[in-house]
Amino acid sequence: MRSFTKSGTTAVKRTAREKWRYVIKNWQLYVVFLLPGLLLTIIFKYLPMGGVLIAFEDYNVIKGVFGSPWVGLEYFRRFLSSPDFMSYLLNTLKLSIYGLLWGFPVPILLALLLNQIRRTGIRKKIQLLIYAPNFISVIVLCGMVRMFLSPVGPLNSLLGISTNWMTMPEAFRTIYIASGIWQTAGWSSIMYTAALANASKDLEEAAIVDGANILQQIWYVQLPAIKNIIVIQFILQAGNIMSIGFEKAYALQTDMNLPASEILSTYVYKIGLLNGDYGYSTAVGLFNSVINVILLILVNQVVKKLNDGEGL
């Protein structure tokens, strides 16, 4: 047994060395294929990071980034001491955390349910229906939500009332999260569906022979097959808790639901682009990004402890 393991390890090392020699020998080919992606990443991801300096300057468009006077941490102190700071932060966290708690399991459940449909034709039709909302733009989706929930919309007609749901702060989070789940859950289930297709059929057949019911088959055979994907997706989504785009929240905002709908990204948009306070808005955006990185690291460490040392 020991000699077999040793020979297997030697074979793996030899294969790795051969692959590495092949890469070195044909490095021009790899450069040709990697160069466009690297250039685009550098131009659109890394070079714009220089704009972070604006968060520490009294930025003037004429003087530019390097000519504007330095103010240090003044904008961060101003934001952290603002009376609205906790409100915007809590609104952002509530939308993200509730969205993660309610939205994360839905694609997994959809994939598990689709896997139980054995007739390929029916499964493809259902997949088409649940994937379609992903291709609706955010603005069109928000327009549909506003029409559906208007005082004369289908929901009020069905309930026999005339409530304007979009003016209710207590309803905003439910509307935001539910519409997001409807739009993205089907498309997000693709990865889990693909992983389930590669699950061991022998294990499924053995479980059926042993008398396992559907729930036991899902728990002991199917979930372990997609466990790694679930962990990776959870870490990535938890690390993006603060990265809510402003488009949807801004499009669903009204003057009446502002206490619940004003989040950091909409605040940055209004302060930066509408009011022209570029330095302050950049500082708020940088604060948001730093919190994201910290959350990503913390979640990854927690998952490692709970998942036998396996993380992102």
Structural features, described:
By secondary structure, this protein is mainly alpha-helical. It has 16 helices and no strands. It has helices at residues 2-25, 27-46, 74-80, 85-103, 105-115, 120-131, 138-148, 154-159, 169-197, 201-209, 214-225, 227-239, 246-251, 258-261, 264-274, 278-306. Helix 15 (264-274) runs antiparallel to helix 16. It is globular, with a radius of gyration of 25 Å. Residues 1-6 have low confidence and may be disordered.
Give a quick rundown of the structure.
With 312 residues, the protein is mostly helical. It has helices spanning 2-25, 27-46, 74-80, 85-103, 105-115, 120-131, 138-148, 154-159, 169-197, 201-209, 214-225, 227-239, 246-251, 258-261, 264-274, 278-306.
List keywords for this structure.
single chain, 312 residues, mainly alpha, MetI-like fold, 2 domains, 16 helices
How is this fold's topology laid out?
Blueprint: H1 2-25, H2 27-46, H3 74-80, H4 85-103, H5 105-115, H6 120-131, H7 138-148, H8 154-159, H9 169-197, H10 201-209, H11 214-225, H12 227-239, H13 246-251, H14 258-261, H15 264-274, H16 278-306
The CATH class label of the largest domain is: Mainly Alpha
Element order: H for helix, E for strand: HHHHHHHHHHHHHHHH
The CATH fourth-level homologous superfamily of the largest domain: MetI-like
Cα radius of gyration in angstroms: 25 Å
Helices and strands: which structural class? mainly alpha
Look up the CATH topology of the largest domain.
MetI-like fold
Helix content: over 70%
Low-pLDDT stretches: 1-6
The CA-CA distance between the termini, in Å, is 33 Å
The CATH architecture of the largest domain can be given as Orthogonal Bundle
| Overall pLDDT confidence | 86
Shape: globular
